[in-house]
Amino acid sequence: MKAVRGVVDYLVLGGVSYIFGIPAGSVNAFFDELYDVPEIEPVVAKHEGAASYMAAAYARATGHLGVCIGSSGPGSTNLLTGAANAAREHLPVLFLTGHVPVNAIGRNASQEFDSEAVYKPFVKYSVTVRRPEDLVDEVAKAVTIALSGVPGPVHVAMPIDVQLSEAEELPLPAFPRREKVLPDPEAVREAAVRLAQTPGVVFVGQGARRAIPEVIETAELLGWPIVVTPQAKGLIPESYPGYIGVYGFAGHEKAAEWVNDHPERALLIVGSSLGETATSNYSKPLGERQLIVQIDFDKTVFGRTYRCDVPLRGDADVTLQWLNRELRELGLCRHARGTQPVALESVPSEFKTQNVLLALQRYLPQNTRYTVDIGEHMSYVIHYMRVLDYDSYEINVHFGPMGIAIGSAIGYALADPTRPVVCITGDGCFFMHGMEVLTAKEYQLPILFIVINNARLGMVHHGHLLQYHRAHPRFQQDPVNIAGMAAHLGVPALRVERFEDLADPRAENLLQADGPVVLDVALVDDQVPPMGDRVKFLSSFGR
């Protein structure tokens, strides 16, 4: 058999269902094998960058390996931003790239590029396989590394001749399953004793995504409220009475008061690396606590910005399970808070971004999952939109690549077809990766793409006005009818040019079972988005 068939069979063994990418000469051998492998469906994107975001979202949603593929040369460089994003988000994604034949390396072959070297700073493992008999073993090694310890991306470059060479059919290596990182029992015991002696706040980051029942149990044993970071918005629904709101970028005043104004309160930090956006620009009051206990599987986050009195290195779910057991042994009783109804209040009819988003949310199912792009609309989503269900928002404030939410929506829709998916993006992001609506159409994915179309780079525009008191006219662009574009692509679309257009009967049936819909909201909103702290941070330099 061809050596590359072993790679495909190995991925099948691991339960991989989708490969995201674009076929091209140096990876055509891989795609050819998929004709005979119905277990894996190739998701052919319109740009490799978007494919990498699809794979990352799929990995995040499922907790399993995501896989994407691109050609040698430009295909591999187009995937590179996705590798950097996956590294920042600790996502296990396998990046497969083609490569020129081994005997052509270093001879200026077409699309030759040393992807192994370029990927190394961004991934946990990067290799170019030079012998066909090593191909499957190297892929297996890479996958094992991706899933071990702190998860992350890996990269394997596959020369054309290595893929096509005949290889002996041998038993496949066992496909790894990630082993949880277990905390130190003595440290957990110390944390329990100290936490039980002081009031405090549970500070939740996106690393708590798979530990929300445990987070709530801890909060109810301690009798503490919960605040979340911007990236963790959506993990705790507003129906939970102990939920306070978002702290950090575009966050809520009440959450800031709970965290900043009472230094005697302890902090239990779960799954947050305490970066810039999570800490309201490294807020000094955040570290002025009586006690700070931090849970994370990445030991490098402890003490990075703030002191950590008791570091607990481990997966959030198992660490909290152990902590809760210790708290109960200390005599603490859980006082379940139950749930409270979340009323969607009437929305003012002034044509503003926040009003449009809140009005649209009334039309959408409660269990909708939102992927949110980078732009001024993101700050409105974080600050104003309601959290009606668990794990309902995907907001990438950390690495922040524009257009990521478009590919992410496709990854989420494939990972969990039972939940409606809505992408909230802007025209700037749409012009980067908007052609992926065709991918959604071709795979019949019922995704609603809401485009806040203000004919400018909105966050840049407002940021310059706030920081420099002027904005270059070239930040503006000619208005484009994105609904018209979508219609020409065969994608149903509705254009909203005033608030009353939301009363269009078509707006009440925005999710179609047979494919995507584009909602083009032509809205220039000159009010300042709730992002002032970010501008203050940028303005602090050069003084």
Compact summary:
With 543 residues, the protein is an alpha/beta fold.
Strand order, sheet with most strands: 2-1-3-4-6-5
Number of helices: 20
Q: Which radius of gyration do the C-alpha atoms yield?
A: 24 Å
Low-confidence stretches: 534-543
Largest sheet: 6 strands, parallel
What sort of overall outline do the alpha carbons produce when their principal axes are compared?
Answer: globular
* DSSP, total strands: 18
Structure description:
It is a single chain. The protein is α/β, with parallel strands linked by helices. 35% of the residues lie in helices and 16% in strands. The protein contains 20 helices and 18 strands. Strand 1, helix 2 and strand 2 form a beta-alpha-beta unit. Helix 9 packs parallel to helix 12 and helix 13 packs across helix 14. The termini are far apart.
